């Protein structure tokens, strides 16, 4: 038996075992692929929408303040302290006292990805939902894992969401749906709907859950969190990975009516009682409480974004109007794939999606001013 | 409309909205209930099998060594460094070099509960599995969430697992199964099978996955991790919550053939790319590397357990032989429920399961010697 033959036998045996051991469900999954985290050399990393600035200094103090002997104890499975902090934070942002959030309107998760995953079995499994055809590519992956049928609603040619497509879906038959998942701003386009537009969608679909993924809302979009007391069907999902510079700590949250939060808790408590560790909770709380750092940080990114957009347009790029910490760009003559590989050679990572409709675009995260100047310089050398 | 009427209307409306919004799946879930974490007073907490001793001091140094500005970056989604550390750790425990583990045999999760949750869609969804009728009460909860049929195999009267019931299940028709989930030692009984017995089960079921939940293995049981290179169908699940005093950090791992690890990765990457945060990974690595602390810690608990067992037997208790950091006890005359409430009054929390077959037993975690003396003293006052 030569080596090649041995390897073939091993592969055949592997394929049989895989079919024996893995469930039909698992065999049919096509997992999400996150932006690469290469270790071969140092890159200017503009490919995973990370924040270029460190988190609040108060996060360090909070994390170092966690007593190490307490780590032997399970964390609070309900993250009560953190949920109270988040409810208070949003209550502090609005003037009116008529309809306030409480901790019962808040759900914590191990990143907003985990919360989005829970949204499916909580509200969508066995149902038929809609989301835009160009959007966060994790949505169809969740749908497959949690057996949810979905229809992708095409964006307009300028990558904007047509609000009319999402109205009164409970009564539209084949063009209807039992649930809506909509990112605002959308990814990877960066385009945002206004608060009034999202409210139209929520108000016209009182019978079904409308989940609004606001991962990127803090970079210029209008959040609908303050509409939660008004609409029982509205769930808003946030992350601390972007505007609070804590991608490495894994914290996200959802805000919704107590009924929707109960739905998420049923799933979470059938999956893992303790999704939030003691240190992540302490760090997250400190980040939420540091308003000044948050505002300074996001304003810097918005300013850099606007400056870079101007420069890119002058270089012959069209840039989708962005309210996110990334921009979605294409050049009038140079194919995106070519630019992607060219930038990579020059030590700059951006994200390229080899998919219909968007395969001539690049998604570029907004880094520091220095990083963006390196990016612009590299780009200039390629066109 | 009086207040009571208004509340009724609100409840009726709530019930209708719940049916509208929650999926049939979510409406049918009966979540797991973890041991209580009361905040009303200070208790001697012997109810959630936490370790009474702090984690290794090296965990603190590792956690404080995580550069805070790195928290802005996503963690390594594959936890490569930690997986290498764990493979090396187990390789170091065996003499023979013939069949070694690599990082491809290791899967990390946000606590072993998350890994157990992933085990269901990876291997069991749509299939028919077996586990003991008295066991970790999360198993049927996972089965409901991930649409797995199951049969509970009765324990013998002394709470031991009858190995014959688990042999050759692929060919047994109605008494067979497509998967086996078995905790060793079992919970809440504490009874363990020998390594040879587990190997019999694994070897006689080569066509189906045998998942062995070794959450409590380090307190005197015999791990089957070193059988993984020999059996493609064996998955062993560990946690750092018990023997490594890190319940608050949320880290668990599974060891299995590359085929089984691939199954888990498919599910994890369809659920949440980044389940392990940067700090938890750093702390876990330090804990795994501190062999001395680990051995000292678990040996203390084993010694305390043996001493307490002797005392309890002298007091008229029967104690199920335990290889875990808890004991399962019942008294010859005093009902367990009465003792549970009596202990609670006296500031001592233990776990009582109001379930058939075990509703006259208490599960008591092994605390420090001082805590166990308080427990024994309180118990003496009640009988």
From TrEMBL, chains A, B:
Cross-referenced SUPFAM superfamilies: PLP-dependent transferases
Alphabetized UniProt keyword annotations: Amino-acid biosynthesis, Aminotransferase, Histidine biosynthesis, Pyridoxal phosphate, Transferase
Enzyme class per UniProt: transferase
Pathway the protein takes part in: Amino-acid biosynthesis; L-histidine biosynthesis; L-histidine from 5-phospho-alpha-D-ribose 1-diphosphate: step 7/9
Residues annotated as transmembrane: none
Keyword match Amino-acid biosynthesis: yes
Cofactor(s) annotated in UniProt: pyridoxal 5'-phosphate
EC number: 2.6.1.9
Sequence ranges assigned to domain Aminotransferase class I/classII large in this UniProt record: 42-379
Assembly mode: Homodimer.
Protein name: Histidinol-phosphate aminotransferase
């Amino acid at each position: 038996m030569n080596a090649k033959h041995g390897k073939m036998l091993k592969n055949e045996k592997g394929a049989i075992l895989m079919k024996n051991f893995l469930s039909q469900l698992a065999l049919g999954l096509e997992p999400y692929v996150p932006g690469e985290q290469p270790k071969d050399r140092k890159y200017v990393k503009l490919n995973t929408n990370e924040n270029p600035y460190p988190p609040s200094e108060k996060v360090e103090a909070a994390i170092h303040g966690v007593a190490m002997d307490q780590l032997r104890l399970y964390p609070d499975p309900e993250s009560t302290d953190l949920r109270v902090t988040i409810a208070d934070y949003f209550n502090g942002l609005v003037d009116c006292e008529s309809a306030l959030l409480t901790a019962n309107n808040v759900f914590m998760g191990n990143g907003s990805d985990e919360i989005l995953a829970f949204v499916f079995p909580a509200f969508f499994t066995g149902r038929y939902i809609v989301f835009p055809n160009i959007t966060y590519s994790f949505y169809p992956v969740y749908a497959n894992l949690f057996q949810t049928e979905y229809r992708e609603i095409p964006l307009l040619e300028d990558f904007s969401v047509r609000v009319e497509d999402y109205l009164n879906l409970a009564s539209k038959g084949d063009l209807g749906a039992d649930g809506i998942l909509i990112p605002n701003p959308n990814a990877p386009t960066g385009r945002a709907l206004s608060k009034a537009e999202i409210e139209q969608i929520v108000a016209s679909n009182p019978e079904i859950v409308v989940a609004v993924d606001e991962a990127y809302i803090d970079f210029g979009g209008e959040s609908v969190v303050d509409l939660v007391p008004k609409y029982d069907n509205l769930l808003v999902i946030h992350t601390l990975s972007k505007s609070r510079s804590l991608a490495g700590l894994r914290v996200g949250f959802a805000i919704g009516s107590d009924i929707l939060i109960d739905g998420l808790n049923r799933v979470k408590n059938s999956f893992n009682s303790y999704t939030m560790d003691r240190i992540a909770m302490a760090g997250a709380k400190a980040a939420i409480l540091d308003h000044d750092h948050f505002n300074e940080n996001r304003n810097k990114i918005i300013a850099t974004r606007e400056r870079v957009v101007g420069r890119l347009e002058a270089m012959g790029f069209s840039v989708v109007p962005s309210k996110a910490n990334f921009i979605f760009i294409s050049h009038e003559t140079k194919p995106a794939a070519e630019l992607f590989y060219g930038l990579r050679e020059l030590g700059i990572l951006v994200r390229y999606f080899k998919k219909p409709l968007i395969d001539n675009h690049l998604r570029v995260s907004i880094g520091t001013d220095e990083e963006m100047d390196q990016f612009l310089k590299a780009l200039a050398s390629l066109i």
